Amino acid sequence: MRKFKILFPTGYSIDNFENDNIDINVVFEDQTVYVATAFTLINIRLLMGTSKYFWASDMFIVSDLRKETLKKAINESLKDEYFELIFNKIGDIQHIYECNNFDEIKEI
Fold first, then answer.
1. Can you count the helices (H) and strands (E) in the chain?
2. Domain range holding 54?
3. In whole angstroms, what is the distance from residue 75 CA to residue 31 CA?
4. Stretch 62-89: mean pLDDT, rounded?
5. In terms of C-beta density within 10 A (0-12 exposed, 13-18 middle, 19 or more buried), how is residue 21 classed?
6. Interior/surface letters 27-62, b for 16+ CB within 10 angstroms, e for the rest
7. Which one, of 25, 80, 17, 30, lies nearest residue 58 by Cα?
8. Number of domains observed in the structure of the chain
9. What DSSP character marks residue 58?
């Protein structure tokens, strides 16, 4: 399994783990950085309101937004080989975080 860290570009502030969404960056040891937005089903229903559809690029639907759940879901997507279909590669740590070493990246 690939070693990775999860970062939250806008911070990790969740009021309701079952009804929210959050942008996440996944950083791998090879220094690549991927992005997606994690949504819960309850949150999607709320955001839809009376609309007939809902969409978001790089949408990652999870049961809740606890850090442990996100980590398990990402591991599962890697195991199932769906990760790169869900997440979008946005660059490397040198350009995104201005550092040169995976170990310098601190998970929040």
1. 4, 5
2. 4-104
3. 17
4. 97
5. buried
6. bbeebbbbbbebbbeebbeeeeeeeeeeeeebebeb
7. 25
8. 1
9. T
